[in-house]
Design goal:
The protein is an alpha+beta fold and 135 residues long. It has a single domain, classed as HIT-like (HIT family, subunit A), CATH 3.30.428.10. It is built from 3 helices and 5 strands. Strand 1 and strand 2 form a beta hairpin. The radius of gyration is 17 Å and the shape is globular. The chain binds adenosine monophosphate (AMP) and zinc ion (ZN). Zinc ion (ZN) binds next to helix 1. Adenosine monophosphate (AMP) binds next to loops.
Length: 135
């Protein structure tokens, strides 16, 4: 399934240029054009799916395995000291391209990336109540 208005579907089809790094039957990995750190890449399903809520289990499993492969590769080939695998879902969750993707972001000791929030202990009763709603 392909969406002609989707830029990542156009990359899969070869209609838009990309630095393709790895592909298999179900997935494609290519370099992000606005890298957070050197080597930042994206892993996507070849079939269009909007986000992690919508994608089927088979394609999601394939994307996660491909992301693991690329995490290992940036560690081995680029000497990354760590890796962030990031998926954004929905505009409120920072998603800007609505074809599911996992960011594979190599992390280097001392690099400038920081968490966008400051972790502080939560209210225990509120945490427990939310846990109950999620069971
Ligand atoms: P998100 O904000 O999580 O939806 O991530 C979208 C990502 O796609 C951003 O990191 C963009 O830099 C990246 N991006 C957008 N267009 C392209 C493109 N044509 N080729 C490679 N990466 C792209
Ligand atoms: Zn698409």
């Amino acid at each position: 399934m392909s969406d002609p208005d989707c830029i990542f579907c156009q990359i899969v089809a070869g209609a838009l240029p990309a630095h393709r790094v790895h592909e298999d039957e179900r997935t494609l990995a290519f370099m992000d054009i606005a890298p957070g750190t050197p080597g930042h890449l994206l892993v996507i399903p070849k079939a269009h799916a909007r986000d992690v809520l919508e994608i089927g289990e088979g394609d999601l499993g394939a994307v996660v395995l491909s992301a693991q492969r690329m995490a290992r590769r940036v560690s081995e080939r680029l000497g990354a000291d760590g890796v962030n695998l990031i998926n954004s879902c929905g505009a409120a969750g920072w998603q800007t391209v609505f074809h599911l993707h996992f960011h594979v972001i190599p992390r280097y000791a001392g690099d400038p990336l920081r968490l966008p929030w400051v972790p502080e202990p939560g209210e225990p009763t509120e945490i427990a109540a939310l846990a109950e709603r999620l069971r």
